[in-house]
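Worked example 2:
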Amino acid sequence: MADESAVTIGFQIKEIRVSSFTINESLMNEDAEIGFGILLQHLFDSEHNEQIVQVEIEAGTSPEQAPMVVLHSACHYHLTGYQDWLQSQPEEHRIPGILPSGLATALNSISISTTRGVLFERLRGTSLQNVVLPIVDPSAFQPAG
């Protein structure tokens, strides 16, 4: 693969959307440990040079039980220089939506942290407001396939 640093890609947050938030406090058990599941999905809007990182967070006491909290968000990033970077890649790697690994990790980090902050705000005033929200290593998320 070509040198990822040869062409610079800039980005800025364009929009943050919360598409759904549900909380079921009746499932809360004071003594139970709460676990978190986080899913990320990257989408690319080539018409607008936008990378969209969808984040889904579920919190519950066990995988067998319905989650107590579900939050879905989408962080939209406008990319500059992306088409130039893509064209600098070998032909077999010119897949629209593919990102340099450092940029993907940065967008993951910002998206997870932003969604974590939204979740913190949404839990304020509920019986779950003192739940410790995990810190997540954004580089731990790998592309599917």
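Helices lie at 82-87, 101-123. The chain is about 20% helix and 35% strand.
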